[in-house]
Design brief:
heterodimer; A: 290 residues; mainly alpha; ABC transporter involved in vitamin B12 uptake, BtuC; B: mainly alpha
Chain lengths: 290, 320
């Protein structure tokens, strides 16, 4: 029988890791829910944001948490521009073309990163990286705790924005009925770009919360993107509470899978859960359109 | 008839090409291009004609690749049995994935994601169990002899993959004219309407995915004999899955020559990118990605669509 303290630490680690997955998945679920596209560029845009945090810290000494507003605004602008100028225009409304365009964008970003930064892994050295507190016998790094809290907060803010604000109402209208939304005077192209921008802005926030404890390298996005898709499907495409719940579940799944089956084989639990959800409950746990 | 003539002409021209003494580099280039034209045709049958987008075709490729190598290395049997095992393994994996996902009616991006997840499950398993050599992979001992399906010159592999590619073109040409092909296209265009007209959706999709599995598994066997090595990343990584759908979509999906055109264009683009950017890591692939975006922007229906684009179509997408 396993030591209860191991299970307890598995639970905490799973929840903390899961909140990171949820952060990455929040943007993806918005983009999927509104634009109905599978955003292949998600992982590489996260990587880009992480390099942004890295550069701000090393060149200007800006603390990752202080960089959060800069990154969120910058990534929103980038996302808005990408959708308005490139993805929307190049895709001609065909799903397979959107797929190709986002794939092309991710190839470009990843390889430019490889060119500028080589394949080396980079980290930033913040004084509080190893600060930790003890929760019933398990030590927890404070930056990871902050990321956990921020994930909850961001999910709540996004949910509020979608439910209560005018932009949110417009986004929901476009997601439900594009033509109808256009008829009542909503600028559909603008709303698409805003949705994409918000989705990418989430990555900016995720990058700031990740960098104190993570490292960055040009293909770092790969580790997140497949899991983010899993989270999105598990939670229900387009649902923020779903993405949060899905992220935490996947984190637990990975943590306990690793505990019982070993580090690399334990990952299989994630994908088996994913396949089971796709087969038996494809609308996800909290499935509802944005 | 014109299609058949083009296929035969293509086969003949390409077949006599090695006589003119191309460099090893050219032959390798053409061999890989044809391999992806062939693998892309597999994706095209299910994705282009059947409308079932798979993001995980590497699962069939990897199954064939591992089957060929495992039969030779772990069981000490010959490569011919390995070949049979590859086709069987690809078809069985296709049957399994198809049965599970089509039984539960997965469509569109859900089907795409489930294939991606299956590929990942296979990768993790291949990375962890002993029979596949785990993370280190397996190597087939070098013993060049035609009986071992190992050849010294590059021409032999070139001709083999050319034959496979031509066979795949003929197969799709026949499929287009068959009842099965008509069912498949009907499902792509409107699944509910097809069902209402009495098409057995489940059986047709299952047939298609088993066919794709077998074809792609054979492609994996070809790769095994050419490189004599397999590891979980080559077999079940995302690279093959992405490239097969790229060549089909770029070339024009749901067309006989789409994957071939796409493979030729993409391999040329990547070669041009390499030439212009030199060996700086990153820049050549960045250019490749940029060209991909440009191509999609200006040729939304793929290269093959260039020939078939009509004025009405032009207006249609300008409006949307």
């Amino acid at each position: 029988m396993l030591d209860p303290i191991l299970l307890w630490s598995g639970l905490i680690n799973g929840l903390l890791q899961g909140s990171i997955y949820a952060l990455v998945a929040l943007g993806l679920t918005l983009i999927y829910g509104v634009l109905h596209i599978i955003n292949f560029a998600h992982g590489s845009l996260l990587m880009l944001a992480m390099y942004g945090v890295f550069l701000l810290f090393t060149n200007f000494g800006i603390d990752p948490y202080a960089a959060l507003p800069i990154l969120v605004i910058g990534m929103f602008a980038l996302g808005y521009g990408l959708q308005r100028v490139l993805i929307g225009r190049a895709s001609h409304g065909r799903d397979e073309n959107i797929l190709l365009v986002t794939l092309g964008i991710s190839i470009v970003i990843e390889n430019l990163a490889l060119f500028f930064f080589q394949g080396d892994t980079r980290t930033i050295d913040v004084p509080y990286a190893f600060d930790s507190i003890e929760i019933a016998g398990v030590f927890v790094a404070i930056p990871r705790l902050i990321a956990f809290g921020a994930a909850l907060l961001i999910a709540a803010l996004l949910w509020l924005m979608i439910q209560r604000s005018d932009v949110g109402r417009a986004i929901r209208a476009v997601a439900k009925e594009k033509q109808g939304a256009r008829l009542v005077g909503i600028n559909v192209d603008h709303i698409y770009a805003v949705s994409y921008g918000i989705g990418i802005a989430c990555l900016g926030a995720a990058a700031c919360l990740l960098m104190p404890t993570y490292l960055v390298y040009p293909t770092v996005g790969h580790a997140f993107v497949l899991i983010a898709f899993t989270v999105v499907v598990l939670g229900g495409m387009g649902s923020f509470p779903g993405a949060l719940l899905g992220g935490l579940l996947i984190g637990l799944c990975e943590s306990f899978g690793g505990l019982f089956l070993g580090e690399s084989f334990g990952q299989i639990g994630i994908f088996l859960v994913f396949i089971a959800v796709l087969l038996f409950r494809p609308s996800g746990l909290l499935g509802s359109r944005v | 008839m014109r299609t058949l003539a083009i296929i035969v002409l293509f086969g003949l021209v390409m077949a006599v090409l090695p006589v003119f003494g191309p460099t090893d580099f050219t032959l390798s280039f053409l061999t890989l291009m044809l391999l992806f034209a062939y693998l892309g045709q597999g994706w095209n049958i299910l994705g282009g004609y059947g409308g079932q987008f798979s993001f995980g075709n590497t699962v069939f490729f990897g199954a064939g690749l591992y089957a060929t190598v495992i039969v030779q290395v772990q069981f000490g049997l010959g490569p011919w049995l390995g070949l049979a095992a590859a086709i069987l393994a690809g078809a069985l994996v296709g049957l399994f994935i198809g049965w599970v996902s089509f039984r539960y009616g997965l469509r569109g991006s859900y089907f795409a994601l489930v294939t991606l997840a299956f590929a990942e499950v296979f990768r993790i398993v291949a990375n962890s169990v002993a029979i596949t050599g785990a993370g280190a992979g397996l190597q087939v001992p070098l013993d060049p002899a035609p009986a071992n399906l190992q050849f010294v010159g590059r021409e032999s592999f070139y001709w083999i993959i050319l034959a496979l590619t031509v066979a795949s073109l003929l197969l799709v040409w026949q499929m287009e004219r068959s009842r099965f092909g008509a069912y498949l296209i009907a499902i792509r265009d409107d699944e509910d309407a097809a069902r209402a007209l009495g098409v057995d959706i489940f059986r047709t999709k299952l047939k298609a995915i088993v066919l794709v599995g077998a074809l792609t598994g054979l492609g994996g066997a070809f790769y095994a004999q050419m490189f004599l090595y397999v590891d979980p990343h080559i077999a079940f990584g995302v690279a093959v899955s992405v490239e097969v759908l790229l060549v089909s979509i770029v070339g024009g999906m749901g067309t006989i020559f789409g994957p071939l055109l796409g493979a030729a264009a993409l391999h040329l683009i990547s070669e041009v990118a390499r030439e212009t950017m030199g060996n700086t890591p990153g820049l050549n692939l960045a250019l490749y990605g940029a060209l991909l975006v440009v191509m999609v922007t200006f040729l939304p229906k793929g290269l093959f669509g260039l020939a078939t684009v009509s004025a009405g179509r032009l207006f249609k997408f300008r409006r949307s």
